Every structure is written in structure tokens, then in C-alpha cells.
Prior knowledge:
The structure is a single chain. The chain has helices spanning 2-12, 16-30, 35-73, 84-93, 98-114, 129-142, 145-172, 184-200, 213-220, 226-240, 245-288, 306-325, 340-350, 355-375, 377-386, 407-419, and strands spanning 80-82, 120-122, 179-181, 294-297, 331-332, 397-399. The chain is mainly alpha-helical and 420 residues long. It has one domain (1-418). It has a three-stranded parallel sheet with strand order 5-1-6. Residues 8-420 form the PTS EIIC type-2 domain.
Amino acid sequence: MKEFVHALQAFLGLGATVILPIAIFLLGLLFGQKPGKAFRAGLTIGVAFVGIFLVVDLLVSNLGPAAQGMVKRFGIHLHVIDVGWPAAASISWASPIAAFIIPLGLLVNVLMLITKTTKTMNVDIWNFWHYTFMGAIVYALSGSIIQGLIAALLFQIVCLKIADWTAPMLENYFGLPGISVATGSTVSYAVLGIPLVKLMQKIPVIKNLNADPETIQKRFGIFGEPIFMGLILGLALGLLAGYSVGDTIKIGMSMAAVMVLMPRMVKILMEGLMPISESARELLQKKFGAQNIYIGLDAAVAIGHPAVISTALILVPITVVLAVILPGNNVLPFGDLATIPFIVAFIVGASRGNIVHSVIIGTVMIALSLYMATDLANLHTQMAIDAKFHMPEGASKISSIDQGGNLINYVIYKFFALIN
């Protein structure tokens, strides 16, 4: 078992840019494509994700330090540190149940496709760590591997159903036909965020407030283009972080680059994905009568939209302020401030890019996340201790907005807490 776990961790250590092309190549062969065509599709998608993650790294490497600069500049001190998703993923894979999640998760996905209870074929294997995190929480709570696995698979099933529900949005608004997203952190914010957006669109006066990229561009001409929006918002973040003039200009240029480069990387992704998607649809329709089969990918494919990036950049300082003013919150936003684009992607899609509505609903959702992350801090900290995770300096406890403040996670956790 130890050797299997080590082999699994080594495979996962290759990262999504290696795992995903392999998965796509194998799927292409499974769907009857010639090896050369399947290999080209997998390679193209791998190249696209290399580009996407380079842009994401550019975003994170600039946004994270700027957010931390804001925290230090305003002298915020809270005793629960948000360690971010990388730490949460590491803690998850160190759990005893981790070795079972990928084979069981793939089996459940196949069974759901056969029984037509999902339309999503999720090849985003790296992000199975979200399901692992859910199982690890319940395992730490109950000491039962069986309960942990049930919780993880329950979370996966909910994520797949939400992926089916939101796939039309990905096609109609983000321009990603045949794709769905079952990434745990992104879909969990959709389950309440989307209804709240729909409610806001019925409130007098507020429903008329609109600031989507197209409207901004019409009003301000070339200065309303995404490249200029990224520059302006980046400069604002640099000023709030107390950066020097040079560093402020650098982060402005980086955010402008993110706005321009991310959509172009997604176009390369679609070039590789469309042949696989068409082959999958043809085979599954022939064998099982299934229609509208979606390929489940990382939520990174949706975060490149200018409205998503703009909303996220505005929410960074808002999140820092919320941490200070919310009574009862103990979480210091830190590691996951740079992942806010993933959190708000479906909220932005539901609002059709209305940045005003997206920021309002995003603020509500992040406030709820801070409270949930605060409540889960004790258990999250115990999981970290069990995994021999190195605690950040000055932190008595840890948590994460990404998964510790995840609504579906929290509901499932509360259910198992009740029965235990």
C-alpha cells in the first residue's frame, strides 16, 4: 500500500500539464481515434495548459504579494492563517484515504455516465484533490475511512451534477462548447452564488447597475479594452499595497498581460479539445444514446475572461477589509487571495459579465467563506499536524478560503459531524 501511495503521489507530482495530455491521448484512443490524431490532440491541450498555467502563475505571483502587502500595510493581525490551496492539497494527499480517491472517483464517474446521471466525463484528475480534502476532513472528524470515502464520493457526485448544470453557461457566455468544470472550489461557489445573482437581477435600481467589459469599452473607447482594464486595476492594487512607483507599474503591466494572454491560451486549448469532444459525443451516443457529453476540465479555462479577472482584482482588497470588520471572523486572508478568480468565475458567468453584480455577490460569498473557514480551523489544523505540515510562522491555527470556506464541503462536514 505504501508503494502504491508513493507511486500515486509521484504521478500526481507530474502536474496537470502532463497528466491531462496523457488522459486526453488515452481517451482519444478509447473513442476510436487514430493514435497520431489522439496524440496531437493531447499534445495540443498539454501545450495550451502550459500556457494557461504560466499566465495563472503570472497572476498569482503578482497578486499574492500585493495582497500580503495590503495586509502588512494596514496592520491586520488574526490568529488563523489562510494557507491557500497548495497547502490544502498537500495536506489532503497525505491522508490515509488519498490512495483510494482517484480509482473510486473514476469508477463513479463512469457508472454515472453509463446510467445517464451525469453528462460530464471529468478528466481533470489533478483536481480530484478537492474530493480528497472532503474525505480527509471527515476521516479526521470520525476516524472512519469508510465515512471519509463516502463523503468524498458524495462531494464528487454533487460537483458533477453542478458541472452539468453550468456547462451551458460555459458555452454561451465563455465560448467553451463541449466543456464543463467540476473543480470543487469553483462549483461550490456556484450553488448559492448563481441563485443570488438571479435574485439581484430582480431588485429595483440595483438590477439596472451594469459595468460589463463591452459597456466599459463602448463608453471609454480603447481605454475600456481589457488590456487597459488590467493595467488600471493592477496599478490600483500596487498603490493599495504601498508599492514603489516601479513595482506598481510592474504589477499593472502583469495584470494587463493576464487580460490579453489568457483568452489566447484558451483558444489553443479548444483547438486540441474539439476533435476529442466530437469523438466522445459520437461514440457515447452510439453506444448509450447519450447526448451533449461534456469533457470536464480545470476551472482555469474560465478565469481568463476580462470580467472574471476584473471582478477578482476588485475583490482582493474587499476580502482584506471583510476579514477585519466581520465580527467573529478569525481567518487572515493570505494564500487564497490569488485564487479569487476561480471562486467567482461562475458568479460572473451567471451575471453575464456584470462586474457590479459580480462584486456584490462575490463579497457576500467570501464573507460566508471566512466564517466557514473560521469554524473549520480546528479540524483543518489537526489535519495539518497529522500530515506533518510545517505551520506558518506566528500561526496558532490554519484554514483556507478555497476549501475550508467551501459551501458544499461545509454542509457535508456538518452532516457527518451530526451523525458522529
